[in-house]
Amino acid sequence: MTIKIVQGTPKKLYKEVSPIVKDCFEGVWTEKDLLQLLDLPHENNLFLVAYEEDKPVGYAFVVADYDKSVDTKIATIQEIGVLPEFRESEIAEDFLDKAIQFSKATKAEYLEQVVSTIDQWLIPAFVKKNLKPSEIKADREISSFNEAKLILTNIKKNPKITVLMNQLFFEDNDKLETHIVENEADFELIKRNDPIAFGSIISIDKADDLENTLTELKNLDIEWDEIGITFNYML
Predict the structure, then answer these.
(1) Residue 208 has pLDDT above 80, yes or no
(2) Which CATH class for the 3-130 domain?
(3) pTM for this entry
(4) Residue pair 77/109 in contact by the 8 Å Cβ criterion
(5) In degrees rounded to 5, what are phi and psi of residue 52?
(6) Domain with CATH 3.30.1340 in the chain
(7) Which helix (H) or strand (E) segment is 130 a member of?
């Protein structure tokens, strides 16, 4: 199998990969979603397409932007999509190599990606390329404080999970309103009672802790809707 990777502008290469987006993400993500992602402004961007002969079999979209809140330029892998039958190849590793080169060229301080539940097939490639897991974000949709309190209680029962922050999310027109909750007393300070989601940010001290922490999360009496893992590569 001979794989060729082509670099180009997002809008031009979008046409090449649009037919495979759904298959790369099992229908959860579509070509329309990708197009909306590409429409967002960024200081720098990189779009890569992997071909087997003339057939596109995967793609990656990487951006770099200055973040005023931390006074740092950060490169982010927005998306890596590879058709399932090509995931055993080195396509993802090749994408990561080029993403690291791009990040260095744009003078970013580090490269990051949040690996969602559906993207966890990427984890071995990330570990091989020395991207380090730093935190896990676990989210669940809820509709009441009682649900949130139950989740909070279950998390606190497990001393093997190091929680950095628990949050409640509320709809606020087209934005999200967030409140930090560490104990039940914090709920009394919130002047509304219509939450839409509960989220926990969990620390990972080292790569060896990742699998154990994921196992502990899944063993909780909580059905998480999404578990995202943040990986970083310091440049």
Answers:
(1) no
(2) alpha beta
(3) 0.88
(4) no
(5) -105, 110
(6) 136-234
(7) none
